[in-house]
């Protein structure tokens, strides 16, 4: 591993990369740039907007139908007197979810992605032009229902909350590791249905999450009977408090997925340019 | 479908480099992908065949290099290569581990034809 980014230059490939003389007019440019750099750049821009307005932004992710909108409705009912909340909704089609949120008396903006399976930082930035961030305390981004793609895209938000409804099976974290590894909080939703299901164990779901080396808290939640509501609200208020404290120190909060390897591979300061001796050798 | 939008980003980066070096065409593109990046190498290769059309990379070879999943255990200090959905320490079984490699999605290098 190389010292600057921990990535790719090993004793094995160093002679190839560091070779001196060009041949056949072919030159190799060593880049080491994240393919998501455009998205990540926009995401940092979004995060700067959020931080300037001091609004904590939470990215809600789950498979379709696991209760993201119901969670938001219940949360807004509980908090709308004490906090200023807004919601950005992502769906392939319809404004149904936005109407449900607006019915709760808070601003909401719908992003319809057409065929795209996830929100990205550019889509969220466009949505920000339709929402007044100032005076908000809390902004939820309800991502497109999908346990795969949304996990790969930083939106500029501060926290990832992943819902897992009890009808989906407790092995979902093992089946969708990229998503659940990104969770800052896992909400096991629709727990009012547990008496009817003999094959979902919340403790198995929690174990599967921990097997991803993720020690995120787990809350069992039902928007129907109110189970876990207090724990969820406490988590939210603590996050807002922690975030505001970070802001006072000129820092910001980042969701879990931003750590680890991605940061090791942060965009290098300049592009390196090396000639290569044999252009096909490394292809073997 | 998001492999296609990644490819657009990839092509932007490749074309910026191509322009900077006044290259005539792109010979090959090497991308490094870790299993935890959420990107499937074969799908990215397919998307590339669409994205490269009509560009200086039209005949470029697209190579993906898979990176292993490696974790470092904070409890016992061991390094191991676990399965994608079981990122616990291979030595002591603890889940207080840090990912050293496996979530990368990186344009590693580009080969350019710059002269006759």
Would you give an account of this structure?
The complex is a heterodimer of chains A (284) and B (116). Chain A is of the alpha/beta class. Chain A has a single domain, classed as Rossmann fold. Helices cover 32% and strands 18% of the residues of chain A. Chain A has ten helices and nine strands. In chain A, the strands form two sheets. In chain A, strands 4-3-5-2-6-7-8 form a seven-stranded parallel β-sheet, with helices on both faces. A two-stranded antiparallel ribbon of chain A has the order 1-9. In chain A, strand 7, helix 8 and strand 8 form a beta-alpha-beta unit. The longest helix of chain A is centred in the C-terminal third of the chain and has 20 residues. The radius of gyration of chain A is 22 Å and the shape is globular. The N terminus and C terminus of chain A are likely disordered. With 116 residues, chain B is an alpha+beta fold. Chain B has a domain of 79 residues: hypothetical protein PF0899 fold (2-Layer Sandwich). Chain B is 26% helix and 30% strand. In chain B, the strands form two sheets. Chain B has a three-stranded mixed β-sheet with strand order 2-1-6, with helices on one face. Chains A and B meet through strand 1, helix 2, helix 6 and helix 7 of A and helix 1, strand 1, strand 5 and strand 6 of B.
Helix content of chain A: 25-40%
Q: Output the helix-strand order of chain B.
A: HEHEEEEE
- Oligomeric state, counting identical vs distinct chains: heterodimer
Q: Structural class of the secondary elements of chain B?
A: alpha+beta
CATH class of the domain at 2-68 and 102-113 in chain B: Alpha Beta
DSSP, total strands of chain B:
6
Tell me the greatest interface.
A-B, 54 and 52 residues
Estimated structural class of chain A = alpha/beta
Distance between the termini of chain A: 20 Å
Portion of residues in beta strands of chain A equals: 15-25%
Shape designation of chain A: globular
Largest sheet of chain A: 7 strands, parallel
The overall pLDDT average of chain B reads: 91
**Tally of helical segments of chain A:** 10
Structurally, the number of domains of chain A stands at: 1
The CATH superfamily of chain A bears the name P-loop containing nucleotide triphosphate hydrolases
Described by the principal axes of the CA atoms, the overall outline of chain B is elongated
The proportion of strand residues of chain B reads: 25-35%
* Helix-strand topology string of chain A: HEHEHEHEHEEHHEHEHHE
